[in-house]
Amino acid sequence: MEKLRAGETPGWRNSAMKYLRAGETPRWRNSVLEKLRVGETPRWRNFALEKLRIEETPRLKNCAGETPRWRNSAMEKLSDGEIQRWRNSALDKLRVRETPRWRNSAIEQLRDGQTPRCRNSALVKVRVGEKSALEKRPRWRNSALEKLRAGETPRWINSEWEKLRTGEAPRLRNSALEKLRV
Asked: pLDDT by residue (tens digit) across 107-133?
């Protein structure tokens, strides 16, 4: 409002209404409605309905009979018998007897007899007989309790109390109170 009063052009992204008042063309991504008002063609990806209004050919399968190419076309691809290739297609890959490859597929990999490779698969590895993270030397950041049980010294950022127990000096930036205590 202050820029309009001074005669300048507003330059922030919600200035489509101000641009229309000044007779210019809005250029931000939600300007489909404004572009239709000035007779231009919208160019963003959700403009299938707007293309139908101006008698163009949309690229959706239900409207023009073509093969959809956007990421939410899983339902349309299933209707044609094609194989989905987007990231949430693990359930659909199991239906066509393929192996899912996303990170939460530990349960599906166990069904196929494979070894899960995701980072939260410690419980699953115990079920298939592998050496779990509790039996190995722990390498994750919340393993201070496990390291204390094994007699090691924890080295993660919240180990002030463990360092005080072993007589070491804490070196964290918020450890002024602990340093005063020792």
From this structure: 555 555 555 554 444 544 554 555 544
Query: pLDDT for 34-44, tens place per residue?
Result: 555 555 555 54
Q: 54-98: per-residue pLDDT in tens?
A: 454 444 444 444 444 444 455 555 555 554 444 345 555 445 554
* Apex 73 CA angle, 67 and 74, nearest 5: 115
Which residues neighbour 140 within 8 Å (Cβ) at sequence distance 6 or greater? 133
Chain center to CA of 181:
44
Sign of the CA dihedral 71, 72, 73, 78? positive
Q: Any idea of the CA torsion for 61, 63, 66, 70, to the nearest 10 degrees?
A: -40
Contact (CB, 8 A) for 25 and 38 = yes
Helix (H), strand (E) at residue 112: none
Q: Per the structure block, which two tokens stand in for 53?
A: 């209004």
Where do the domains of the chain lie?
A: 1-58, 144-181
| C-alpha span between 148 and 101 (Å, rounded) | 36
Q: Which of 32, 4, 40 is nearest to 19 (CA)?
A: 4
The span from the CA of 127 to the CA of 113, in Å, is: 12
